[in-house]
Amino acid sequence: MSEVTPVLLDEQLCFSIYSASKKFNHFYQSALAPFKLTYPQYIAMLALWEDAPLTVHQLGQRLELDSGTLTPLLKRLEKQGWVTRMRSRTDERQVMIHLTAMATAKRDEVYQRIGQCQTLLGMSDQEIQALMTDLVAVKNQLDEVSRQRLIDKKVNVQ
Amino acid sequence: MSEVTPVLLDEQLCFSIYSASKKFNHFYQSALAPFKLTYPQYIAMLALWEDAPLTVHQLGQRLELDSGTLTPLLKRLEKQGWVTRMRSRTDERQVMIHLTAMATAKRDEVYQRIGQCQTLLGMSDQEIQALMTDLVAVKNQLDEVSRQRLIDKKVNVQ
DNA sequence: AACAATTAAATTGTATACAATACTATTTGA
DNA sequence: TCAAATAGTATTGTATACAATTTAATTGTT
Prior knowledge:
The first copy, chain A, is mainly alpha-helical. Chain A folds into two domains: 11-122, Arc Repressor Mutant, subunit A (Orthogonal Bundle); 123-158. Helices cover 67% and strands 8% of the residues of chain A. In chain A, a hairpin with a 7-residue loop joins strand 2 and strand 3. At the A-B interface, helix 1, helix 2, helix 5 and helix 6 of A face helix 1, helix 2, helix 5 and helix 6 of B. The structure holds a DNA duplex.
């Protein structure tokens, strides 16, 4: 008796975002091919160029990635000469990620290449800003809902 | 002498999208936990509920995924009883993906659960539509730029 | 000081993604 | 017609993601 509204793929915001994310990933990956950086490696480098040195934990908070993803990624970056990983002497649990001289030297070259990519989007800064604001709002709402669900669960358990 | 504009993580549209995509993925994954469907498995089911049967190739075009991703994913869906995979008799190269009776039976239950999730976003249909339109525009632009680059390459080769 | 609780990374296991290659079936062109 | 080209799927190899567990170091408490 009760009609259920069909869920159509093309009407799902999640699918637009999922799909756009993969396309961006691919786009930057090929733009970064001369540097042999993958997209996740690239955003790790962006964070480090802003704030190095960082602990694995700090980098993880910035990128929303855990050690299960970051540890192997950082080992690959180390192997390719972008970073060094060294245990903190004041707290042996922590691993500090430092930039190498090569990473510092190549920074502006990467900045320049990516800066060009941004303009290729053909969007004004205002348009990009507006889109980003919406996306952040969606993210925050998802966090909020997840948080409430978690509390509901806890309440139910008691 | 020439100043290079720094590339700041928080100003990158790609990072907003990447980050929102992961969050959506996680959000739906937990909403779908009762059905033991991952997010990519779920969108495959959405496409199949709309149009089954589909060949692997057709499904790949719909989801923008290739056989390297879909073959193992579909094998897992088959193992869990959602789909069957059978070689087409008219063209033995093709593998047709059919829904099982269980998949058809559970469709509305999934539709209902996901329909509820949409409302949790607290956005109007207009807002969601506007955001999706922007995202599609970004995707198209990325495709366009990639296409031009490809042509440039070919021209350069000649 | 002793020891439980906590924290930080690494590891393990599962599931995407995707480039590149392989394999088979079909189609096409000389 | 039959060999070359093409098409559809599967496989291999590399790189994320992330939950869950493990290990080691630090902190808090008594």
